[in-house]
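Below is how a single chain appears once it has passed through the pipeline. First comes the sequence as given, then the structure the pipeline wrote out for it. We keep one example in the README because the format questions we get most often are answered faster by looking than by reading.
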Amino acid sequence: MFKRTKVTDGTATGQVGFRKKSKVPGVMITQYIEKLPEGKSHPDFTRKPIALTIQEGKFAFFKAIVTGDPKPTVVWSRNNGDVSDPARYQSKYDPNSNEHTFEMPHVKPDQADTYKCFAKNEYGQAMVTVVLNVIEVGFKMTKAPQQQAEVANCNFKKVLKRRSKVVPKAEEPEKKEGEIDPKFWELLMSADKKDYERICAEFGVTDFRWMLKKLNEMKREREEEQAEFVKNLSDLKPIHINADGTASFELEFDLLDPSSSIYLYKDGEMIPYTKELGDKMKHCLRKVGRKYIFSMRDLMPEDAGFYQLDVEDVNMFSTDFKMVDFLVKIQEVKAMEREDAVFECVISAPLSKLMWFGKNMPLEQGDKYDIEVSEDKLIHRLVVKDCMVVDKGIYAACAGIKSCNAWLVVEADKGAPKGKKSARKTTRAGGSGTDLQKVAQEQQQKLDKEREERKEKIKAAREAAAEAAAAEEPEKTADSGAGKDKGAAVEVERIDKTSVAATTTVAGDSGSGHSAGKASGGAKQDGSHADAGGGHSAGKASGGARKDGSIADAGGGHSAGKASGGAKQDGSHADAGGGHSAGKASGGAKQDGSPADAGGGHSAGKASGGAKQDGSHADAGGGHSAGKASGGAKQDGSHADAGGGHSAGKASGGAKQDGSHADAGGHSAGKASGGAKQDGSHADAGGGHSAGKASGGAKQDGSHADAGGGHSAGKASGGAKQDGSPADAGGGHSAEEASGGSRQDGSLADAGGGHSAGKASGGAKQDGSLADAGGEPGITSGLSDILATRGQPAELTVKMNTDCDGAWFKDGEPLKSGGGISITKDANIHKLTIHSCRDTDSGLLRFVSGDLSTEGRITVGDVPEFDEDDLHKFSKPVIVRVGQNAAFKMPFQPQESLTVSWFKDGTELKDGGGVKIVREPNHSRLLLRDCLRSDTGEIKIQLKNPFGAVEATSQLIVLDRPGPPEGPVETVETTSSVIEIKWNPPKDDGGSAVTNYIIERQERGHSLWTKLGDVSAEKTSFRDRNVTHGKKYSYRIYAENPQGLSDSLETADSIMAGIMILSGPPGKPKVVSTSKTCINLTWTPPEDDKGVPIIGYQVEKRKKDTNQWLALNAINEPIEDVNYAVKDVTEGAEYEFRVSAINESGAGDASPPSAMACAKNPNMRPCFKDPEDFLVVRAGNSVRVKISYEAEPPPHITWLKDDEPIAPWINVINTEGMSQLVIPSSKRSDSAIYTIKAKNSVGEAFFDVEVRVTDEPKCPGPVELEQTVYGKVAVSWVPSPDQELDDRLYYVVSQHDSNTRMWKTVADRLFANTYTAHNILPGIEYHFRVYAKNDMGLSDPSQSPTWGANSNRVPISSNGVSSMEISFERPPSILVPLKVHTPPKGYQLYMTCAVRGCPTPNVSWYLNNTCINSDKNYYITNSCGVCSMYILRVRENDGGEYRVVAVNSLGKAECSTKLTVRD
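Resulting structure:
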C-alpha cells in the first residue's frame, strides 16, 4: 500500500489533494478525491519529456504522452519567465500518436530554464519538470558590458560559470618559462596511479615527490567541490576507440540534485551533445544506471583534444584523446609452420598500447601472442608464436582512427614426418624490413626539436620584451598639431593604398610622417639613399629591401606600429630599431651573413625604407602622422625622400629614372605625390596642409613639376607636359578642385587657386594657351539599384537632357563632395563617385533637379573570402586508402545569404549515401565514406553571395593496391635449364608507384605455389634458372606498391623447360575379368621410356563398330599402377582398350589395342547368399521370407511348402538377385518348412526355411500339490491347450514363501507337466505359479493352493471363544506429504515424501494428471518408502500440480502439492 499524503497546493478551494505514485519516475500526481468513480482515472504520464542540451539557433522541443479519463488538458510553463510568445513557444497535439509537443524554434540562450508540464482533469493533475540547456555560439558583444558589470558587482561565480579550467587555445595566454600546462594536473586527477609516470614524462615533470604532494592537495580541494554536487564518483575509464569506429569514455556517480546541469568541453570549449538523438549529433551523453557514457561518432583527425566533463562548474573527469599516424606500417609475413611471425610498426607519437586484431578478432597478451612496446613507445610489435596453418589471415594494428593491415601466410612444413607434429622452431619470420630503431630515433629527435623550438620562442619573446622595456624612452618629438584627424587619414589611406606609380626604374624615399599615416621608403636599384623616418604615431616603419650590401633602416617607432628591417642579398646591414611600444620590430632577411636589425619604431604608423641593389643607404624617415609617406623608386643612386607628412594624409615621392631628388612633403590628410620624370630633374610634391590632394605633373624632359601646397580639402593637380616646362597646380584653398590644363607644347597650364565652392577647369589646348570653361544649367534623370563591394569604388550617373544643376540626397540627407564622396558634373552628366565603399554608404540615393528626381539603392557588402592560412592548408592533397573516409574542412567568416557548395571534378556533391556535408556558421565539412580508387580527383568548395563567389580547390588521392600486371605473359626463352618470361606494367598503379614485382611458380601436377623472388619496378621480365628439363611450369606475377599486392597475372598455359620428350608405347592390355558393370585390365610398362621417368598412364576405350577412342582419365590425373578397372561400360556391349605412358612432356604413343571384351557376368551355378533358416511370426501378421542369390544366367525360382506346391494365396516376388515369399495374414496352419529351388543351365540349388506361426500360449490348467517325502512337494498341473499345437512350448514354475515374501523362478524350460519342489520347511507357507511359454512369450500363471503352516491340521473348535488373527498387510498411507516449492527458473529442485504399505505399494508421480515416471527430465527414486524426485534445471513448463499415488492390493493413497517457477 502506498502512503497517502494530503496536499493543498494545486487543488481548488475547498478540495483536499492526495499524493499518488506514478509508474514513471519523476512524475508528481495529485488526486483531488479519495476514491475515484469506476472507470475514471487521474492524469498520468506514460512518456515524460527528456532533458535537452542544444546549440543556440537550433530547433528545440519536448514531447510528452499523458493518459487519464476524462482526457486531461496539457499546459506548459517555465520557472523564470512566461511562454505566451507564440513566435518563441508553440504547443501542439497529435491525436494519432497522442503526443503533446512543446516547440522552440531558433532557441536562444535566454530560453535556458526549467520547464514544467501539467496534465489536469477533474479528478487530479500530474506534473513533471524538465531542464533545457542552451549552448551559446560565438562571442556576443552585448555580453561584454554585462560581464564587466557582474565583475564590478563582485558576482564572480556567475561570470565564471560554465567555463572550463582549461581555456581554449585561442584564449590561452603565453606560458611563462617553467610554467606547467593546466592539462597536466587535470589528467593526473582523473588517471590511475600506474599512468602517473607516463603523464609526467609527457609534460616534462621530473620532481615526483613535489608532484605527488601538490596533487594530493589539489585532489582534496577537488573532492570537496565535487561533494557539493555528486557522490560515489568511481570507475573512471579514459577515452578509447571502440570496434564500431566510435570513441567513448565513461564514469559512474550519483547526482545529489537530478536537475544539475552536465557540460562537456573539448580543449576548453563547450561542445553540444544529445541524450536521445544520438544518430543526429556527433556527440552523445547517455546514462545507464549510475554510469554516464560519452561517445563520439564519425571520427575525424580534428576530434583529437582534451575532453572534460563538468557538473555545474566543477570538473568530474578529464581525458586526453590523441591521434597518431603510422610512419612504418606492418608488412606481409611468410612463415613456416611452427615458426614465430613478427609484425612491427612505428607510430608518429608515443602511445602505450595499440589495438591488435587477427582475422577481425581482438588480440591480447597470452600464450599465443606477445605484444611488445619499445621504451620510447614508438615501436610496437606483435609476435604470433608457434604459427600453424590455421593462423594465416589478415592481421591489423589500430591507433585511433588510423590502421594498417597485412597478411600472415603460413606454409606447411614438408619435412615433417607423416602423422606427426614437426618440431618447434626457434626462428622468427617477418619484420618491416627497415631500421625501425633509426626511424623511431628520428621521430623522437623531431619531437624533441619541436619542444626545444617552443622553448626558444618563449625565451626569445621574453628577451625581446626585456630589451623593449629597457630601451623605451619618453620621446615626444611628434608635432602636437599633426595627426589631429586620424579617422580622415585612415579614410584617405583606404581610398588610395597604392604608392607612386611603379616602373622598372622607379625610386622613392618616404619622409617623416608625424600623424597616424604611413611612411614608406622607396625602392632603389642603384645604391642611392632611401629613408623611412621614424614614425612616432600609429603608422608603420619598415626597412627597405636591397641586393647589394647597402644598409636599410627603419626608424624608431615608439608606439604600436611595426618596424621591420629590409631584405638584403649581399651582406649589407638592415636594421629595424627597437620598438618601444606594442608594435613589432623585425630585422630583414639577408643572404650574405651580415646582421639585419629593425630600427626603433616610435609610432604605430609604418615607415618603410626603399629597396636597393647597389649598396646605398635606404632609410624610412620618421613618419609622425597616420598618413603614408613613401619614397620614389630610383635606379641611378640618387636620393629619393618622402618628406615628413605631418597630418593624416599621404606623402609620396615621385618616380625618377635619372638619380634626381623626389620629395613629397605632405603636411595634411591629403595626398602629396611627386611627379614622374625621365631626365634627372627634380619633381616635388609640396606640403599639402589640408585633406586635399597635391600631385606633381608628369614630365618627360627633366623640367620641374610641382604641386603646390593644397590648403583645403580640394584637389590641386599639375598639368601634363612633354617639353620640360613647369606645370603647377596652385594652392586650392576651397573644397573644390583646381586642375591644370593639358598641353603638348611645353606652355604653362594653370588652374588658379579656387577659393570658393565653384570649379575652375583648364581647357584642352595644343598651342600653350589657357582654356577655361564655365557652367550652364540643364535637367534629366536615371538611377537603378546597385551592389557595391566594400573597399572598392562605386559610381552612380544621371544624364540630363539639358545642361542643368541638380542635387544628391542619401536617405533624405543632402550630399556634398568630401569624406570619400565626389560629386561631378560634365555638361548634362551628373556623377556621384564613392571612392571606397563602406557599410555606412549603403542606403537610398536620390538625385533631384528642379521638379524631376530619380532614386536608386546602393548596398555595400563583401565578396566571400578565405583566410590565406586556411586556403593553404585546404590546398594540400588529402591522401587516404581504399575503404577509409576522406574529410575536408574549410573555415570561413560567417555571412548572411552565403551559399556553400562542394564539387568533385566539376560535379556538385549532394548530402546522402556515402557523402556527408556539414554546414556550420563558420565552417563547412565534407566527409566521403568508404572511398574507392575511382573517387580520386579534384575537390572544390565554393562560397557564393550576391556580391560574388570564391572557390578553393584541393585534391583527393585514394591509394589502393595496384591493378594486375598487363598480359599476356610472353615466353622470351625456354631451354633445358632456363625459362624467361615477360609482361607489361599494370594500367592502374593504385595512386602510388609500383615498387617491385613478385613472381611465383607452380610445377605441373602440384598444387603448391612457390615464391621465386622479386624484381624492381623498372624491370618487367624474369629468368627462372631452377627448372628441370621436360617439366612444365605455370607462373603468376604480382605488382606491389606501399599499399599492398595486386591480383595476379597468370600464364595461360604451362611452359615446358626444353623440348618435348615422349615415352614409348606400353605393352598390349590384357582383359583379366569381365562383368556387366566392370572390365579389369592389366598391361606392361613401355620398353623405352626415352630417359624420362614415367609418372602414370592414360587408358582409352573404343566401342565395337565405332571409330572413336574415348579417354577414361585426364593426362593431369594419370593412373599410377599397371592395372585398371573400367567401370564406365554398358551391359552386353563389346569394347577394346589401349594404354599410353605419361611423363612430364605429356602422353606418349598408344599401345596396341586389347582383344574385344564383352561387359557381362560369367556363367555360374546358382548359390544363395547368407540365408536365414528359421523364422517365427505371430499369428495374424504377414510372413516375408527373403532369399538373395547369385547365378548366371538368371535362374528359374520355385517355392515348395513341405515339399508340396504352395497355395495360390501365397505371393512370390522375384527380382534380380533376390526372391521373396509373402503370406499376407498368417495362421498357425501356415507353419511349415518352405523350400526355394533355383535352377539354370549350369545347375540348381535348394534351401529350406522353417516358418513357425504361433501366438502367446494359454495358461496351464489347475495346479495340485502333494508331499511324497519329508521336505519335498510334488507340483503337477493340467497341460496348456496349446501344447499339442506348439512343439516349442514349455513351462516355467515360480515359488513364493512367507519368509522372503518374494516370487522367484525355481524351474524353467520344463517340457513335462510335473515338478518336485525341494527344501520345503514346516511352519512356512508356500505358493506356486505355473506359466506356459513359447517363442511369443509367457502365458498368464496358474496359481497353486497354499502349502505349509496348519494346512494339514484338523480345525479345533473354539467353544464360543473368538480368536484374532494377526496380519501385517495394510493399505498404503502417506507418512510425510509433499511440500510447496517456488524455485527460480534454472535452479535445481528436490521433492520428497514418505509412503508406507504392505505389500510394498507401487508409487507413481503425476504432473497435471500426466504420469512422469518415464520422463527423462525427472529423476525419480523410491528407497525404503522415501520417494524422491529431482529436477536438474527447473523450466517454465515444470510448474503445476504434482501428485504422488501409492497403490497395492489393499488400497491406494495419494498426496499433492504445487510448484511455482519464478523468473
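Residues 436-471 form the longest helix (36 residues).

See the next section for the split statistics.
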